[in-house]
């Protein structure tokens, strides 16, 4: 079974509906959808009223008492029953064959943590850009210190892996996924990305990765890279080079960064 962790905080309900229905309608149906809800006074009544439209035993709500994505994810994982843990954000959605294709790719490549390529969409659903992450384990390892090699909302990973390396570290909020990937790679777990666009991630103005807080997010990525360099043996010549050039990204906006990556091939 796949346990899908879906953190919810101050949602836009039309976007949340699209997200949940993309999960309900998956071709691989052996799933549980764990809605990790962080209570907010102005949203509680609307949220529980919204849920009444779904009569599906695969959906369950877990209350989260701590702010922050890392804490919400960890609370969801602690309440998960699946052999695999998957991710999606409340304003994103996925292709209805996502998990079928990811499990097939995972088995064929003997991988422990799988992602995919991603479409980035505007608030109206229009595709405005794409991300093609490296697909093989070796490619991912080679580029890992350059940029985050996985799209977090597209992740599918082994629960056993998390039992060994631990859960998300709240000290790396907004780079919690990147820091976890470094830990997993250090323990020789295998990575891969399905070379298909299986997730649609929304360009939210408040997003740490693609919104107005992007400079703070870049500094947090640097913090994760510094830990990888010091503690996780990311000391190959390319690792050090990529680490040293990271501060350049502090003055390059997400839009400019995407153009630069495409020109140089860094997006692959």
Brief characterization of the structure:
This protein is an alpha/beta fold and 268 residues long. The chain is built from ten helices and nine strands. Helix 7 runs parallel beside helix 8.
Give the tags.
Spore Coat Polysaccharide Biosynthesis Protein SpsA, Chain A, alpha/beta, 10 helices, nine-stranded mixed beta sheet
Kindly state the percentage of residues in helix: 25-40%
- The assigned CATH architecture is Alpha-Beta Complex
Could you say how many structural domains there are in total?
1
Kindly state the number of beta strands.
9
What does the model show?
By secondary structure, this protein is of the alpha/beta class. The chain has one domain: Spore Coat Polysaccharide Biosynthesis Protein SpsA, Chain A (Alpha-Beta Complex), CATH 3.90.550. It has helices spanning 13-24, 44-51, 69-78, 98-109, 137-143, 159-165, 176-186, 214-231, 237-245, 254-264; strands at 2-8, 31-38, 59-64, 84-87, 93-94, 113-121, 127-131, 156-158, 191-202. Strands 1, 2, 3, 4, 5, 6, 7, 8 and 9 form a nine-stranded mixed β-sheet that branches. Helix 2 links the parallel strand 2 (31-38) and strand 3 (59-64). The longest helix has 18 residues, at 214-231.
How is this fold's topology laid out?
Elements: E1 2-8, H1 13-24, E2 31-38, H2 44-51, E3 59-64, H3 69-78, E4 84-87, E5 93-94, H4 98-109, E6 113-121, E7 127-131, H5 137-143, E8 156-158, H6 159-165, H7 176-186, E9 191-202, H8 214-231, H9 237-245, H10 254-264
Parallel strand pairs: 1-2, 1-4, 2-3, 6-9
Antiparallel strand pairs: 4-8, 5-9, 6-7, 6-8
Helix pairs in contact: 7-8
């Amino acid at each position: 079974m796949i346990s899908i962790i879906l953190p919810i905080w101050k949602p836009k309900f039309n976007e949340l509906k699209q997200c949940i229905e993309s999960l309900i309608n998956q071709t691989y149906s052996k799933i549980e959808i764990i809605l990790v809800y962080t209570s907010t006074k102005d949203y509680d009544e609307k949220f529980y009223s919204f849920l009444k439209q779904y009569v599906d035993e695969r959906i369950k709500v877990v209350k989260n008492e701590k702010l922050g994505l890392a804490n919400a994810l960890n609370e969801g994982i602690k309440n998960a029953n699946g052999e695999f843990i998957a991710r999606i954000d409340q304003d994103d959605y996925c292709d209805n064959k996502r998990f079928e294709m990811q499990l097939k790719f995972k088995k064929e490549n003997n991988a422990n943590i799988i992602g995919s390529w991603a479409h980035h969409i505007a608030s109206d659903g229009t595709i405005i850009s794409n991300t093609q992450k490296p697909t093989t384990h070796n490619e991912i390892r080679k580029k890992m210190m350059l940029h985050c090699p996985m799209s977090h909302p597209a992740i599918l990973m082994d629960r056993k892996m998390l039992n060994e390396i631990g859960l998300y570290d709240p000290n790396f909020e907004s780079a919690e996924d990147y820091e976890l990937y470094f830990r997993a790679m250090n323990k020789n777990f295998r990575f891969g990305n399905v070379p298909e666009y299986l997730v649609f991630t929304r360009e939210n103005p408040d997003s740490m990765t693609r919104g107005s807080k992007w400079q703070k997010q870049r500094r947090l990525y640097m913090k994760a890279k510094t830990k990888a360099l010091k503690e996780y043996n990311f000391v190959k010549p390319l690792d050090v080079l990529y680490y040293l050039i990271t501060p350049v990204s502090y003055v390059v906006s997400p839009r400019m960064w995407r153009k630069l990556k495409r020109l140089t091939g860094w997006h692959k």
